[in-house]
Structure formats: structure tokens, C-alpha cells
Amino acid sequence: MVVVLPVAIVAIVFKSALASERNRKEIILAALEKNPNLDVEDLVKRMKKSEKLIKEKLIARLERGCLCCLMGVAFVLLYFLLSVQNEFLIIAGTALIAIGIAFLVSYFVGRRMLAQEMEAEQQNMKQE
Q: Which residues contact 44 (CB under 8 A, 6 or more apart)?
């Protein structure tokens, strides 16, 4: 019973990815049948799922870091100030604070390292 749920989830995700890819191929083939002079590369580029910008990814890391740190601090404060003596709170709180700090470090390091790439990406967005 424990194995069935993860296997079912993986199977559903895999089948949906295959169905999505199959639908994309059918759309491209139908477009080529209607207009044989169609630029396939341009069509594929327009149909491609838009990836998040570097800046959006970094902001998501910042949000996750702040959220994890705040939840961790709340758990630790709950443990110490309200006398809710549950070991889960102190363990989860310190783990969430550590995860939050890791996300924040990732954000600040990434922002510094990827500054040029973000600028180039922004220039590409202005050109299009």
C-alpha cells in the first residue's frame, strides 16, 4: 500500500507529459499540413513553454528563504515562549531556519554571480 501511491503519482505525471508532447506534435503536424511553407522553428519557439527569467527564479528563492526563516523562528518562539514543550517544534524550527538561510545565501550569491546574465536577458526582452 505504501508503494502504490508514489508509483501512481509518477505514472500520472509521466503519462501527462507524454500526452502533452503528443498534442504538441499533432498541432505542429496539422499546421504543416495546412501551410507547408510554415517556419517550423518559429512555430516551435512560439509553442515552447515560457521559462522563468533568472530574476524571477532569484526572487522565488528570496521568498522561500524569508518564508522558511519566519516559520522557523515562529516554531522556535512557540517552543520557548508559550511553553509548548513539543520536540517537533524545536527540531522543525531549526531545520526551517537552516533551509531559509540556505535559500537566502543562494539568492544573494546568485544575484551577484548572475548580474551580467540578467542584464543580457533584459536586453533580449527589450529587443523582442
A: 28
Alpha-carbon gap, residue 105 to 33, rounded angstroms: 51
Provide the whole-model pTM: 0.62
| Alpha-carbon distances of 125 from 42, 62, 120, rounded to whole Å | 17, 23, 9
CA distance 19 to 13: 10
Tell me the C-alpha distance between 93 and 57, whole Å: 25
Query: Tens digit of pLDDT for each residue in 83-107?
Result: 777 888 899 999 999 999 999 999 9
Q: How far apart are CA 91 and CA 110, in angstroms?
A: 28
The pair phi, psi for residue 14, each rounded to 5°, is -65, -45
Q: Which residues contact 65 (CB under 8 A, 6 or more apart)?
A: 100, 101, 102, 103, 104, 106, 107
Q: What grid cell was written down for 48?
A: 515552447
